[in-house]
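Structure in, sequence out. Go:
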């Protein structure tokens, strides 16, 4: 059996860790040849000793220097240039893009240019530069396989279906930890409370995005580019049980839904092994033990981030990049207890209102808009 050679960008994050767990569970089918992280040298060292990659990179140059002291013969790169070099690794068959935030854009784009298969967990890549990414992937003949449970579900429901037969895509959202909170109560929630997601185990930034429903807003934009479906044909419903991962409604009124246990290793494995399906030891869904499956409309008055994401998507151009960048800053400030939970959407809205969007932007214009939005958010 020829092993599939894999690079994991962001290997010390939640998706990266679970990707390596899946690879380990599948035995000899995969070979990890490249790993990257931002600055978590202790975990990266453990991963390196276990999987023996050809090359690793740390975005933080000081951390890279420290790791070199622990591996005398290992090739250890640093900075964005080092991460890009790992992303473009000649021998790689598949690059798992799991870097959190806008930092994942350029390495993912470079991997596409190098004609590497992409397993995409970094939603900001498509949110920020969806037109550029999809055009480059089409040009290079690169298939982008979604890793998010929602987009994996849609991908599987759409298999062998023509886009013109699709009426709507329906993304499900658990609603996060504050679904039943009043508006006044939301003003006083703490980072500790926001990080207690009722269903999923994710990194801090994604968990806060889930609590504000920004995560779902970013997923709407991602789905728009990934599947070529108009924004107004992509709906969001709250589904607290997190059993139905997403649905596709067709023009004849029929709806296909993807069900499964809420475990990110399932969509990760599907992306790694595609087009095959392999057995897994993960917990199976027992339909007889499901007491109820409920769905409701999202409350955009309590959770305005979702509405802001739709507005940015309809404006298009550089607006989604500004939305994403200002959100990253707002979430960071909330986690540091410098702003309140309900100030997150207020900050994003202020930045969006000040932005003069550029239609059909170049990559350079997108990156400039990202920098501007971060600086503007810090001035709010």
């Amino acid at each position: 059996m020829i092993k599939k050679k894999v690079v994991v960008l962001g290997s010390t994050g939640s998706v990266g860790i679970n990707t390596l767990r899946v690879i380990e569970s599948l035995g000899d089918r995969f070979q990890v040849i490249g790993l990257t992280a931002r600055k978590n040298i202790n975990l990266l060292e453990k991963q390196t000793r276990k999987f023996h990659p050809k090359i690793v990179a740390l975005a933080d140059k000081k951390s890279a220097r420290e790791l070199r002291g622990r591996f005398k013969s290992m090739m250890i790169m640093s900075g964005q240039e080092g991460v890009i070099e790992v992303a473009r690794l000649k021998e790689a068959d598949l690059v798992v893009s799991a870097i959190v935030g806008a930092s994942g854009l350029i390495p993912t784009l470079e991997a596409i240019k190098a004609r590497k298969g992409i397993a995409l967990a970094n939603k900001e890549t498509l949110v920020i530069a969806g037109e550029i990414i999809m055009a480059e992937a089409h040009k290079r003949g690169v298939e982008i396989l979604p890793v998010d449970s929602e987009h994996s579900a849609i991908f599987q429901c759409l298999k062998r279906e023509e886009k013109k037969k699709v009426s709507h895509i329906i993304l499900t959202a658990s609603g996060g930890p504050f679904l039943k909170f009043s508006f006044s109560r939301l003003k006083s929630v703490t980072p500790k409370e926001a990080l207690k997601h009722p269903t999923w185990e994710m990194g801090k930034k994604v968990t806060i995005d889930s609590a504000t429903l920004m995560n779902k807003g970013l997923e709407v934009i991602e789905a728009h580019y990934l599947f070529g479906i108009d924004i107004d044909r992509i709906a969001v419903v709250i589904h607290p049980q997190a059993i139905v991962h997403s649905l596709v409604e067709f023009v004849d009124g029929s709806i296909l839904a993807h069900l499964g246990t809420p475990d990110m290793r399932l969509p990760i494995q599907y992306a790694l092994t595609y087009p095959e399906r392999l057995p897994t030891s993960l917990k199976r869904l027992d339909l007889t033990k499901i007491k109820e499956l409920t769905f409701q409309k999202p409350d955009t008055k309590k959770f305005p981030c979702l509405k802001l994401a739709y507005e940015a998507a309809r404006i298009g151009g550089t607006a989604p990049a500004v939305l994403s960048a200002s959100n990253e800053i707002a979430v960071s400030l909330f986690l540091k207890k410098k702003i309140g939970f309900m100030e997150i959407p207020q900050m994003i809205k202020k930045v969006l209102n000040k932005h003069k969007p550029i239609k059909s932007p170049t990559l350079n214009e997108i990156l400039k808009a990202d920098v501007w939005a971060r600086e503007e958010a810090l001035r709010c």
